[in-house]
Write a structure and sequence with these properties.
Length: 334
């Protein structure tokens, strides 16, 4: 392995500041499954609302496959402008109460995972990071009319117990966040991850309520007050638009009602048993849950339900389905 330390450059003006030691680290890396664009919304909200300082910058040229994930550039009439190179950076921010924390954000590396993770471990140890809390989001067969569920994992029982909406055992494609969590735990560091559950028919659009849930869980795990007001307001607008689209189609209403019924049937008598209880009131095994969700998402029914919601959203006679210019607006329902 090449030397991990040469993979990043630090901001010498603040890196040696004693106040930078002992802070919690939040991680929000895009490129893996990001249902509802939760990860990108969380990163944008934190960097746009809170004051930030760059602590370290990773060498994206060594980590990103440009041809697989091409950067954006603008062609303006007769010239090129606004090239947006991939970035992977560590920032220091302050929450709503002035409490400092660190944020690792940008593209998930395509290449050199182990070297990147070793580099992050160096930073964790040199900066004496107190906790790594990271987030991603997956599509789930749940209705948008019920509370956003989250699966929490890691090695901090005090931050995990009683919070999980789903506790599966399943083999899945790994992200760099998963491997980073494993390596940090092996090295004796505290880690907690949050998987936000996004209604499968909203997974392709920005869904602000799920991003709000993500920020709340990140803040709760690290003892921070993170900004959610702007996303809450945007979320209310999105939810009103979804409600108009649902109310405009009896077929879509039937789909949502069916999802609500299934969700409520499995909710059980306690708040966090939502997806764990079988019809005979026995707890479903993790294998059963993992298999059931995977089978549902791959089933014709899931595809049919998503198609119904998408078609309804684009019907011109559905209230709210056109913009001010008479064209079809970008619907949140997919």
């Amino acid at each position: 392995m090449l030397e991990p330390r040469t993979l990043f450059n630090v901001n010498a003006e603040i890196f040696d500041d004693p106040a930078l030691r002992g802070l919690p680290l939040l991680a929000s890396l895009s490129g893996f499954v990001d249902a509802g664009h939760v990860v990108s919304q969380v990163s944008e909200e934190l960097l746009e609302i809170l004051d930030s300082e760059t602590v370290a910058v990773f060498d994206a040229d060594q980590l990103i496959d440009y041809r697989n994930r091409r950067p954006r550039i603008t062609f303006a009439e007769d010239h090129l402008t606004d090239y947006q190179p991939p970035r992977l950076e560590l920032h220091r921010l302050h929450d709503g109460l002035g409490e400092p924390f660190l944020l690792l954000t940008g593209f998930e590396p395509d290449l050199q995972w182990e070297r990147f993770i070793s580099a992050v471990l160096l930073l964790v140890e040199e900066l004496e990071i107190s906790l790594l809390s990271w987030i991603h989001a997956i599509p789930m067969p749940v209705p948008h009319t019920r509370p956003i569920g989250v699966t929490v994992h890691g090695n901090r029982p005090d931050l995990i117990d009683g919070r999980n909406a789903w506790r599966p055992t399943a083999e899945l494609q790994a992200s760099v966040g998963h491997v980073l969590e494993l390596r940090l735990i092996e090295a004796g560091h505290d880690v907690v991850g949050q998987v936000v559950h996004v209604p499968h028919y909203l997974a392709e659009a920005e869904y602000p309520p799920a991003a709000v849930a993500g920020l709340e869980y990140l803040g709760a795990s690290a003892g921070l007050m993170l900004p959610t007001d702007r996303l809450r307001e945007t979320g209310r607008d999105v939810e009103r638009q979804i409600a108009r689209q649902v109310n405009g189609s009896t077929e879509v209403q039937s789909v949502v009602t069916n999802l609500e019924r299934k969700y409520d049937e499995h909710a059980g008598s306690t708040e966090r048993r939502s997806l764990l209880v079988k019809e005979n009131s026995e707890l479903a095994s993790a294998e059963e849950l993992g298999a059931a969700v995977e089978a549902y998402l791959a089933s014709p029914r899931a595809e049919e339900e998503s198609t119904l919601l998408w078609d309804a959203a684009n019907e011109p006679d559905v209230p709210g389905a056109t913009d001010d210019d008479g064209g079809a607006e970008d619907s949140p329902v997919r």
